[in-house]
Design a protein that fits this description.
The chain is α+β, with helices and mostly antiparallel strands. It has helices spanning 14-25, 32-39, 85-99, 114-122, 153-167; strands at 2-8, 44-50, 56-65, 68-76, 104-110, 126-135, 140-146, 170-173. The protein has an eight-stranded mixed beta sheet, with helices on both faces. The longest helix is centred in the middle third of the chain and has 15 residues, at 85-99.
Length: 174
Amino acid sequence: MEKVTIRRMTKDDVENIMKVEESAYGEHHWSKDSFMSELSNDLAKYFVLYNEENVLCGYAGCWQIFEEAHITNIAVSPDYRRRHYAEALLKKIIDACYENMVKYLTLEVRVSNSAAISLYEKYGFKSLGTRKAYYQNNNEDALIMWTENIFYDKFKNIYDKNMKLLGEKIIINE
């Protein structure tokens, strides 16, 4: 079973995050300045995932505003996909929402990103529409996805079931 460490992002992580950005998104990715700016944003919560070899394999972030969190990104280096790392990062965001009494999560995802859409649907996110030509590099549409209140039993039951399954595949140190 794989072991990973997930913790808050720091300035020291940004160089390695840029490697993940470039490998995950090609030339259309966030800048180093964007990540540095997020670190000084009180609303932003960013996390990094390191594997057992101490390689930064992925990161995730959200903005928590009152009762709502907007997931800005979840990215995993292509070399480390299909290991449940994105799911572990999503878990960390959800846990941070529970800690801060945030009730709802939302995000945009490319309509072509079926792997991400499946992950979000697994956790109870529903599509509530699209943003036309949202992505500037190719004018691809984005699905707008939301959760119901994460403190309701319906969401908690889905979350608890998924945590049990995730715990059988990966050990997360926090």
